[in-house]
Amino acid sequence: MIQLDRIILREIRMPLVSFFETSFGRTTGRRILLVEVRAEGASGWGEVTAPENPFFNEETTETAWHIITRYVAPRVLHRELACAAEVYPLLTHIRGHNMARGGVEAAVWELEARLLGKPLWQHVGGVQREIPCGVSIGIQNTVEELLEHIERELAAGYQRIKIKIKPGWDVDVVERVRARFPSVRLMADANSAYTLADAEHLKRLDDSYLMMIEQPLAWWDLYDHARLQEQLQTPLCLDECIRNARLAEQALEMRAGRILNIKLGRVAGFAEARRVHDAARAAAAPVWCGGMLESGIGRAHNIALSTLENFVLPGDVSASRRYWQRDIISPPVEVSPQGTIHVSDRPGLGYDIDLDYIHSITARKEELV
Ligand code: OSB
Ligand code: MG
Known about the structure:
Oligomer: single chain
Bound molecules: 2-succinylbenzoate, magnesium ion
Largest sheet: 7 strands, parallel
Number of strands: 15
Number of helices: 12
Strand order of the largest sheet: 5-6-7-8-9-10-11
Order of helices and strands: EEEHHHHEEHEHEHEHEHEHEHEEEHE
Shape: globular
Structural class: alpha/beta
């Protein structure tokens, strides 16, 4: 049984070591909400993965602050929870805002793991001790710069390269990357930059034998993804569209894609992420773990999630140093020369939280009791 006596919400500001650009815009620094939940004198930590602007989905750092303080905290504080898995159903009355809900939900899982003295990855049902890693490389100013970035990440050992595409930065760029790196495991992510009217253009990507094309069409549109998939040889992978396990089942049933990217925040936490994972496994579809430019706390949660059995493809979970001069956990997340992360056996998150550093970059804080 868990009974939360306090939730502490902090907004931290962290500059990225280099800008990250997707089809919807460029990010140079993050405003991240950290959630600390307390019970029995112990703390659990979570991260809200909502970005600064509502361009990925409907959420932002600001909306998440509002939803957690006003609606999430009152529903979970002081309530007798049999286990962390009970948080999700308590919050379904709140429509959408999965990342806000998921930040709190994941913190409760972490707290529960700590109270049990178990590593979070084992507590959520993980089985893999070492996870395969890829990188997501944003849109660059020139193709030469993109090729240099790819070169560097391959030298570091990463097992697959994902590049961001948008109209005007797509087929030609992919072809040049493919020509330069003929045997690299390569994929492209469009973040909803196209419509079905672009099908003929997107078909040209088939010649570059990508592992998959991620979320080319609208963030809410499974139907058109199915129409597009039937015209493409390259598998589609869904990101934005997969907000819960039922949508995952429907997507796979209607063949809107053959692969799923699972993001903890996007599906409102570990309980639903596991159900999405199980739905994909039942449909024989592989999954991998997506990223949202997380700090070390969200990153550690992504590592735990990636240890589940059907996470068979390299994810967007990579070393802290690719994002931050200094991370808020220690040690920072490191990637082996083989492009893997070794999972920590320590209880909970598996990393120490650098509270002094968090304190120094906190822009606002609220204690909910
Ligand atoms: O679509 O996967 C995405 C970053 C921000 C928003 C959306 C996405 C991404 C990434 C980066 O691809 C993944 C990462 O390195 O954290
Ligand atoms: Mg994506």
